[in-house]
Each structure stands twice: as C-alpha cells, then as structure tokens.
Write a structure and sequence with these properties.
mainly alpha; 11 helices
Length: 252
C-alpha cells in the first residue's frame, strides 16, 4: 500500500467532510477504497457544510501531535517554523492575505508571522488577530513608501497630477503607520495583562501551598470542608421533607 504523505492527510482534513470520496480519490491519485479507509482512520465524517479553517487547523495539529507524539514546544527551531507556516496557510487570515498582497508581499508576511510566533512563544487568538493587523500594515507601509518615492521622482519635472498622487500616498503611509502603532500598543497591553494574570495565579497558588504547609491551616481547611458537608446534608433533608426530592431518588 502506498504511504500516505502528510500533505495528503491535510488535504483530507480540509476537504473530505464536504467532498465526495470519488473526487478526493481523483485529486490524490488514489483509489476510492483507499480514501474511504484513510478518512475513517482519521475519523473524518461527512458533512455538507464546509469546515471552518480554524477547525481544520485544530484537527491537523491534534493528528500530528498524536501520531508524532511531539508538541510544538518540543520541536526544534526548523520544525517550529514549518509548523507555524502550515498553521498560517490553513488560516482564514492567509486567505485574506492572498486577496490583498502579491507573491513577494506574501513571502514577507510569512517571514514576519514566523518571527512573531517564534519570539512570543505563546499567543492567544486575539493576539493572533492583532499580529495579523500589524503585519498587514507593515507590508502596506513598505508599499506606500516605495510608491510615494516613485511618484515624487516622476513629479520632479513639474507634473501636478503625479505630485498629488505622491501627497495622497504620503497620507496613506501616515495613516497606516498609525494603525501599526495602535495595534502594537494593543498587543503589548494584551500580553502584559495576560502575563500579569498568569503571574498572579502562580503567586496565589504558591501562597496557598505555603498556607497548607502548616498544621493549623490544614486543620482549618478540614473543618471548613466538614461544615460544608453538614450544610449540604441539612439542605438535602429539607428538600426531602418538603417533598421536592422523593425518598427513592435520595437513596439512589
């Protein structure tokens, strides 16, 4: 039996739910039987509605972690870069990028995305959206800066129309730079708050462990648990006596 490549499995994750097995087999150059067998092995069920990109990404990542036994934090740098690019290209953000940027700009986007992910290590979904805005703004800033210079050079001969275009591009550059800076502030504030909350949680846990390390604290906690159990028993009795809970249900 021909070995199934990762890209073939990824294709099934993306399309098998809403594409016929015959069409999948034709695209992959495999038999329908082989496709059905692998689809069932991957636990991909048929669904007329197209699966969301983020759901596809989650399934692929889960499959890779289960089959390879390696989480992204345990991968080497090269593997992490490949994983981040695969995740990006499976996302809705990437589909948006394809419509907005040319091939060279898309390559810049990939590089910047990997840089962010490798540097920040942990990123939630809101922060990913903010990073998407930042990279998009960065690419447009470079585009406007380049075009503005071209129009200014061409307008040096005294063409007022070209000069007006250069002025318009300068305004676009300024506005886009402002978008980038606001998104950067938002990202920094989000991460600062998240790190603070995570730090507070760790401190609270450490303090709790320290408190429970004393005999008095352990005895106090035990007494509180006994009191809560006693209150619950009284409440159960009240509900039973009032007819809200039948005796047979309580016994069960």
């Amino acid at each position: 039996m021909k070995h199934w490549e990762d890209w073939e499995k990824d294709y099934l994750f993306k399309h098998a739910a809403h594409t016929t097995d015959a069409e999948l087999a034709s695209h992959l150059g495999r038999t329908k039987t082989a496709v059905v067998e692998m689809r069932r092995k991957l636990d991909i069920k048929k669904n007329k509605q197209q699966i969301k990109p983020e759901e596809v990404t989650a399934m692929i990542r889960k499959h890779r972690e289960v089959t390879e036994g390696t989480s992204i934090s345990d991968m080497d740098e090269a593997q992490q870069r490949r994983e981040y690019i695969n995740e990006l290209m499976d996302s809705a953000n990437w589909q948006e990028c394809i419509l907005m940027f040319d091939e060279q700009e898309l390559n810049v986007y990939k590089v910047k995305h990997v840089e962010f992910m490798m540097t920040l290590e942990t990123v939630n979904e809101i922060e990913k959206s903010t990073i998407h805005i930042m990279i998009g703004a960065f690419i447009r800033m470079n585009r406007y800066q380049k075009l503005e210079k071209e129009y200014r050079d061409m307008a040096a001969g005294g063409d007022p129309e070209l000069a007006a275009k250069a002025i318009s591009l300068h305004k676009e550059l300024r506005d886009t730079t402002e978008i980038y800076m606001k998104a950067e502030d938002t990202l920094n504030a989000s991460r600062k708050q998240r790190i603070k909350e995570e730090g507070d949680q760790k401190l609270n846990l450490i303090e709790l462990i320290k408190e429970l390390d004393t005999q008095d604290a352990r005895e106090k906690l035990g007494k509180e648990a006994d009191a809560l159990m006693h209150i619950q028993q009284l409440e159960d009795k009240r509900l039973t006596d009032g007819g809200f809970i039948r005796g047979s249900e309580k016994e069960q």
